[in-house]
Amino acid sequence: MLATENQPTPLRDLSQDVHRRGRRLRVGAWKVAGDLPASFRYAAQGLAYGFASQRNFRIHVFTGLGVFGMGVWLELSPDRLAVLVLTVAAVLVLELLNTATEAVVDLAIGRQFHPLARIAKDCAAAAVLVAALSSMMIALLLLIPPLLQRLGL
Description:
Elements: H1 14-18, E1 26-27, E2 30-31, H2 36-53, H3 55-73, H4 78-109, H5 115-150
Antiparallel strand pairs: 1-2
């Protein structure tokens, strides 16, 4: 059977359809960002979803804000504050990737159990755990000495 103009073939480059003349076109049910503001809007929607739906993401956000606030209060140097920001950001990024992984696995297998789905979800969660524990250790190493000094201990 020959492909008509409306039927994509495996060899057809769909990126031409998506970005024809710089306009945002629909591919299936998804909109493709045709400009930079749309890309930022979609990213903001992902952040909003993560914050609204993921308890652990909210915990990491508020913990990170508290740690950064303590760093400012303890008058850490800018390079030490930057380390705190990077470690908190790494945890938040991994938490969002964990959420995305869980959503994709759930979409792919539905309500069925599959051992590979469990492995994917467990490994994504473990990545967040490793980052959170490392971030906590870095925060303690950076905050405890100036805190003890401030307290006169």
